[in-house]
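User: Fold both of these, please.

Assistant: Here is the first one.
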Amino acid sequence: MDVITIIAYIGGIAMVFGYLPQAIHTMRTRNTDGIAMTTFLLMGVGSLAFAIQGGYACFNGDTSFMGIFVTNVITTISSVIISAIKIHNDFFKKKK
């Protein structure tokens, strides 16, 4: 395993462990007051784009992109969950 692959794994692990605790916390508490919607939407779009890139590369035989694909699928799902709860909370706060 070369240095670049190790760096990629470190980056992937950091991304997942950066998103996952926020997603779990948001699902448990439903508290989204301190979350910037624009940030999570843009990060979600970025993660989705990288997931598509990684999936496309893997589908075409370049398995070196598998880490990019898996990492960004997880972060995309986390972003979608957090954004959906945020949208739900903001919508119902305005109705009150």
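And the second sequence with its predicted structure:
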Amino acid sequence: MIVNQCVEQGIYVALILSLEKDHRPLRSTELSRILSVSDSYLKKILRKLVLAGIVTSNPGKEGGFQLARSVEEISIYDVYSALEGEKCELKMSGIGDRIFIYGKDFAQGAKEVVSVFDRANTAFCDELRKLFLSELVSEEHYREGTIDFRALTDKSGNI
């Protein structure tokens, strides 16, 4: 299984915002430099995170993106579902139903394949729900917002 890179980037956007000095807003251009990704691509991710209520967008000269709620309230599943859709599911094509039409044994085999993927999917989603962003960074840093990402990055995107 390959998780779309936007999920990984979304997780790190939220972590960066949680750690930004004094929880100041960061612009998408600043975030894209920190992550070394295209600004236009990151804006699509940020838009979905805004719609999901994970980050807020503040317009204006001093505006940018900030977390909408505490990292203690945001699970990996929240980010995943914001970017991949509400349904956390592995999609099966149904090929087994078309191929295994030759008898009961074959049909049962196809059902078992679907069943094992359903169980794996449930376990995958349950694990994502268990891990909160607060468990990935120190409480001291996310409570206060102690890293000045603006000062750490230069125009070339180096940290």
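The helical segments are 5-19, 28-35, 39-51, 76-84, 95-99, 104-130, 139-144, 149-152.
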